[in-house]
Amino acid sequence: MSTIFGVPAPALYGQILIGLINGSFYAMLSLGLAVIFGLLRVINFAHGAQYMLGAFAAYLLLTYTGIGYWPALVLAPLIVGAIAVLIERFMLSRLYGIDPLYGLLLTFGLALILEGAFRHWFGAAGQPYAAPPQLTGALNLGFMFMPIYRGWVVVASLVVCIGTWLLIEKTRLGAYLRSATENATLVQAFGVNVPLLLTLTYGLGAALAALAGVLAAPIYQVSPLMGTNLIIIVFAVVVVGGMGSILGAIVTGYMLGVLEGLTKVFYPEASSIVIFVVMAIVLLVRPAGLFGREE
């Protein structure tokens, strides 16, 4: 069996694939957080709960209506995005212009309520959610066997992340979003409905989290704790990339996912803390993050 740096090649390739899969979820979730923070200046601690809601929406659609995986990729983000719109309109909008800590506390409380409610209804154990038949099986790449569904997750995540980046950086709507982060009053003076823009932005960020939840359901199962287990890592990814940086969220999400996978091969004891070590180093060297801007 061939080895790379003393490690069996299949084990190394397998961990790189796992790193890419984890990085896909880190990138999508941190992207949603970056979009929300970039415009609303809200540290959305409910993001992990919205990720969990996306997975449960897919599970409930299948269990009670027979709606399968492919429609759920569209319906679950729409459902969670609509819930997020109501949260922004009736709760978060009342906190704009005051200390951002209140937004953090509100969304943290919402996350605890949602997690507690779903634990009461479904228990802490995960619920199985099968991958669609078209994505079962594995591909022989010559140097490893790659499960088709996991490959699909990486590709789908890349498409969503690049599409979101293009929307924000290359379109008129994205120009309004970026301008509103600098001077919302001036943008509104030009006839742009900034409150609606804020609402749609929060809905978009939550929908991205829900989409990640649907993609994750066949891999990690559907559990009330799935968001809690991930959100702290995602916040670390956002800090490393730079708060509010769209490109930083995408690049650092994949980069830190792969780094975490490689650490499991070469130094397994550090795999659970390597992302936080990187975060600490980045904060010491560049407090604004790798792609962030100094205030």
From TrEMBL:
**Membrane-related topology note:** Multi-pass membrane protein
Cellular-component GO terms for this entry = plasma membrane
Q: What domain of life does the UniProt record list for this protein's source?
A: Bacteria
The UniProt similarity line reads: Belongs to the binding-protein-dependent transport system permease family. LivHM subfamily.
> Predominant location of this chain?
membrane
Write one Gene Ontology MF term: transmembrane transporter activity
InterPro entries named among the record's database cross-references = ABC_transp_permease (IPR001851), BCAA_transport_permease (IPR052157)
The identity of this protein, by name, is: Branched-chain amino acid ABC transporter permease
Q: Which UniProt key words apply to this protein?
A: Amino-acid transport, Cell membrane, Membrane, Transmembrane, Transmembrane helix, Transport
Where is it localised? Cell membrane
Q: Does the keyword Nucleotidyltransferase apply?
A: no
Q: Which organism is it from?
A: Microvirga aerilata
Q: Name one Pfam family in it.
A: BPD_transp_2
Residues annotated as transmembrane: 12-39, 51-67, 73-92, 101-122, 149-168, 230-259, 265-285
For the biological process aspect of GO, one term held by this record is: amino acid transport
